[in-house]
Amino acid sequence: MEIQQLGDHSPDKFASLALAPKGRTDPQEGNWRAQEKAIDDWLPINARRNAKWWYSAFHNVTAMVGAGVLSLPYAMSELGWEAGVTVLILSWIITLYTLWQMVEMHEMVPGKRFDRYHELGQHAFGEKLGLWIVVPQQLVVEVGLNIVYMVTGGQSLQKFHDVVCHDCKHIRLTYFIMIFASAHFVLSQLPNFHSISGVSLAAAVMSLCYSTIAWIASASKGRSADVDYHLRATTTPGKVFGFFGALGDVAFAYAGHNVVLEIQATIPSTPDKPSKKPMWKGVIVAYIVVAVCYFPASLVGYWAFGNKVDDNILVTLNKPKWLIALANMMVVVHLLGSYQIYAMPVFDMIETVLVRKFWFTPGLMLRLIARTAYVAFTMFVAITFPFFNELLSFFGGFAFAPTTYFLPCIMWLTVYKPKRFSLSWFTNWACIVIGVLLMILSPIGGLRQIILKIKTYKFYQDYPRND
């Protein structure tokens, strides 16, 4: 969609008129507002508002059930049975509660919708401060996820190749990441959430399938003869740092809050039928699917392999070969959708800045260049630092905990102002404390693991083949 300049007014003229409304005539104001509306209709988040409740369901499943579910058995091996089960259950409950708060706050102001996370932050904390609080953390989550998904997609393709062609020449992980990225150079040109609905639906179905395969295959294999349920590390510092890193792994598994407002923005809303009703219905369905995927995969995987489980449960499983190969390809399909779900808000930010701040003309060429550059960037970082579990631990605590656990609670306390010492007041402050602890502790374990991996990793040479 090409947006031409309206009348005789340049973009700079429109900007000055917007800032100085007293010097603006009615025709000029009409031209400026038409220009703004055309830009809003072109941006990915605002383009379509005709989604149903089931769009919310599979978009949220695609957003949450991703690479994180494959690392949960490994997290259990760092936490142990008691702490592991407790952390999994508490995380499910807390994140469902904070997600409900965000759905409620989407239309907290009559006649206005907060279509983006940072818009809600600006309302709660102020125009400038809200941007500085929310945008950096949201970008770390979304860009970090896209990088991790590049790594995971490449690993799954490599595992598929090794399983179906065991005697073939070993191909480095770098090339599989590039193959996975090549699909995103095409998919990234889909303009908005509505256009990626088919990809997202396929991804949601695949996530349920491969997580089911992971725990059924583990159960079929049975407990290993030498299974050990002691913590993975043998030294006290190793156990402590491993515990911190595992908290980040779990936090990583619940990341849907970073795109929930953008997903809700695609649902129509009227005073009689606000968007929060179908959105919440979809969220409930999504969280049931999350529970069905997360709890069996993490508990059965840990039960079967103990502290010998790999950071990706599908890497640990080798038989039956055809089933493991199929599961890895399901992971690839799912990650194609997950990448796009988290990339879409980033595309929206990039295109908003290019059009509104730098006055580029909205259109196909702008999207082609901007989105291709972004995919190339995430591919480059993934190739350079393919540290799967370590990235989960670091990003999980550094940014996932704030945007998932306590930022929604702070905004709720700021905007709704529940009565002091009420149940809502206590619940939100408890979530804030837990989120702050996650943000402080889990990056320590993840960063330590990244440093150790870098010391032993030879760049441009992949990990040894796991036969």
Automatic annotation (TrEMBL):
Membrane topology value: Multi-pass membrane protein
Provide one Gene Ontology cellular component: plasma membrane
Is rRNA-binding tagged as a keyword?
no
- Which UniProt keyword terms apply here? Amino-acid transport, Cell membrane, Membrane, Transmembrane, Transmembrane helix, Transport
Q: Tell me yes or no: is Transmembrane helix among this UniProt entry's keywords.
A: yes
GO MF terms, alphabetically ordered: amino acid transmembrane transporter activity
Write out the annotated subcellular location: Cell membrane
- What positions does the domain Amino acid transporter transmembrane occupy? 50-445
Q: Which InterPro entries match?
A: AA_transpt_TM (IPR013057)
Q: Which residues cross the membrane?
A: 53-72, 79-100, 173-190, 196-217, 283-305, 325-347, 368-388, 394-413, 425-445
Q: Which domain of life is it from?
A: Eukaryota
Entry's Pfam families?
Aa_trans (PF01490)
Similarity annotation: Belongs to the amino acid/polyamine transporter 2 family. Amino acid/auxin permease (AAAP) (TC 2.A.18.2) subfamily.
UniProt name for this protein: Amino acid transporter transmembrane domain-containing protein
